[in-house]
Amino acid sequence: MKNYKKVTSLLLASALLVTSMTACGSSKEEGADQAKGDTFMIGGIGPITGDTAAYGSAVKNGIQLAVDEINEAGGIAGKQISYKFEDDENNPEKSVNAYNSLKDWGMQILIGTTTSKPCTAVVEKTHGDNMFHLTPSATAVESIQYDNAFRMCFSDPNQGTSSATYIGEHQLATKVAVIYDSSDPYSSGIYANFTTEAKNRGIEIVAAEAFTADNKTDFTVQLQKAKDSGAEMVFLPVYYQEASLILTQADKMGYKPQFFGCDGLDGILDVKNFDVSLAEGVMLLTPFTANAEDEKTQAFVKAYTEKFDIAPIQFAADAYDCVYAVKEAVEKAGVTTDMSVSDMCDKLKTAMTEITMDGLTGSGISWSADGEPSKEAKAVVIENGEYKLM
Q1: Which of 41, 296, 321, 336 has CB 3.0 to 4.6 Å from 108, enough for a Cys bridge?
Q2: Can you give the CATH number for the domain in which 111 is found?
Q3: For the chain, what is the mean pLDDT?
């Protein structure tokens, strides 16, 4: 009898354990399904560690601010947004891993990736899955080469052409040297189109000096050649880390030309241990400046600064605009949270060519079927440690 009771107790305990485990598993699965069915699952990818962390952090924060605002106002078509961001360290392989992780989480729409090489790797995956893909800041043409992919920022060719046009139209210089990264599609793409348009604008490229990812700390040779060539201006289609070194080394050489860059220079004022006075007078093309006086920009800057304790850069503004573009496209297309990723994408890629939005980075922004935005670039100059419209 004693043994019978013992066996009965063991069987009862086992049954309770199995029941408990089954209930927990069921609850978890239902919770995940409910989240997917009741919310729009938006993922983001970018570098929040490493040399380009300022870009990824800004994108992450810009998305978060927009998501919070939209959710508080009632969501997209009455549904809330669930948002998750993954670090890729500006590494294509890690970016693909981040994408796979977000897919496992239940991502339906991707806002990312932040930089060009990782985005070019990930767009192969989003295309294969037919997932809607909107990058805030990847500028390489290949980054949105498929019909499921769009961008908020200007492409490399656009930035190169626009920079040469601006310099020529405003007669900023006739002799220009270029220092660029031949191993990076962002930098080399801008350089190629800048050179082409410069010929049409009466601008002479007196020196074109390349470096690579393996050799991007000492720019004295490139700067000396620019100086010897008589360049009045040095065009820098590079990222802010390299630009800060170039400006520091130029100062040590006593070389003081005008410097002109693109959106990659945005963030230079926040480089650790960089003497920001060396950036005085540096010009760059960007679709956003935190010092703009319009009501929309000032409200964004105030909310962003209060939430993240840092002023927003262009990458944050582009990312913020991305979320609102998704909202408009979703509502235009009548997308619902219970649709498959592929069905969502098919509707969104049509809706994106039909919407027009007024954002932080432009008024009347629209998109063509190739994913490229139509908006006007702004030129800013750094004065007293701040960006000011030119």
Answers
A1: 41
A2: 3.40.50.2300
A3: 90
Radius of gyration of the chain (CA): 25
For residue 167, give its domain range.
157-286
Measured from the Cβ of residue 292, the count of other Cβ atoms closer than 10 Å reads: 19
Considering the chain, what percentage of its residues have pLDDT values greater than 90?
78
pLDDT in the model for residue 349: 97
- CA atoms within 13 A of residue 377's CA, in its CB half-sphere: 23
Residues 6+ apart with CB under 8 A from 133: 110, 112, 122, 123, 126, 127, 144, 148, 149, 150
How many domains is the chain built from?
A: 2
Q: pLDDT tens digit string along 292-336?
A: 888 999 999 999 999 999 999 999 999 999 999 999 999 999 999
Does the pLDDT at position 25 exceed 80? Answer: no
- Which of 254, 286, 318 corresponds to the end of one domain? 286
- The whole-angstrom distance between residue 89's C-alpha and the CA centroid of its chain comes to 13
The structure tokens 């699965």 sit at 29
Dihedral, CA of residue 113, residue 116, residue 117 and residue 118, to nearest 10: 0
